Amino acid sequence: MVSPDRQLIHQYATLAGTVRNCGGGATPWGSWISCEEDTSTPIEGSFSLVSKPHGYNFEVPFSATEPVSPHPLKAMGRFRHEAIAVDPRTGIVYQTEDQSDGLLYRFIPNQAGNLQAGGVLEALRIRDPPQAITRRGFPVGQPVAVDWVPIEEADPTEDTIRWEGFSKGAAQFTRGEGICDSDGSLYFICTNGGMLPFGQIWRYTPRRNPKRGGKLELFVQPNDPRILDFPDNLIVSPSGDLMVCEDGYGEQFVVGVTPKGETYPFAHNALNEAEFAGICFSPDGRTMFLNIYSPGITLAIWPEKEDWRV
């Protein structure tokens, strides 16, 4: 925890017993959802690295100062989770899946703000054509109508949820990564999508009645690693721009993306060629926190002005 005068107050672990936790995301009711990007299962009768099935989400209150009991949120699905974003208007939780044939999911809780109470899991379907494979061939900036198909088996014994969804017409997204809510729309990343596989950023805008679906558009796809090279984690800044962490080859950047889809380099990893990850902002918006994946460094960044745009 960092104080408003930029002093480190304390730090502590809040979750243990999980496997390969990835992007996750914050909730409007004061907690963090930690996402397992691993669906390991115990192997009966032989040596196994795990004692319980994995591939779940876990909730940690912001107020936790020690490890909480890791209760899996099974109704949210068992798959290779990457990140979540909550629509604060509805309490619906949107989820990405880090697979080459992954889907985009939403979880409609039975009780808003109480994920342990269960709910309904669904996958996004592009209406025309169904079973769309979005890796390439979609024009930038042209919305398409979408709806959602139900997932009947949210907690399968094997990693099969995406196959059920696709069989019902859900769209495939290649390596779904970061996702965030911004001004009524959800932005999410496909790390290796594009005509040249250097990454895509998609925008989903639900209708006023979210049960009626919404529209999806390919927001950014430069097809140029000098502009965007394997985007991964992202967050919306207090200034309204997206901040996107790269996980590419060679030099690594945090890339800013304006609401019009214009890009600019915001930060450069001058230490090594490891990816940026875990980008987020303090509640007052004055401090950006950013990780360098290896050797595991957390940076606290403050702007020279009260504007995060470069």
Structural description of this entry:
The structure is a single chain. With 310 residues, the chain is mainly beta. The chain contains one helix and 19 strands. The chain has one helix spanning 161-167, and strands spanning 25-26, 31-35, 57-61, 81-86, 93-97, 105-111, 114-126, 144-150, 176-182, 185-190, 200-206, 214-220, 231-236, 242-246, 253-257, 263-268, 276-281, 288-292, 297-301. The strands form four sheets. A nine-stranded antiparallel beta sheet has the order 4-5-6-7-8-12-11-10-9. Strands 13-14-15-16 form a four-stranded antiparallel beta sheet, with no helix packed on it. The longest helix has 7 residues, at 161-167. The radius of gyration is 19 Å and the shape is globular. The two termini are 26 Å apart.
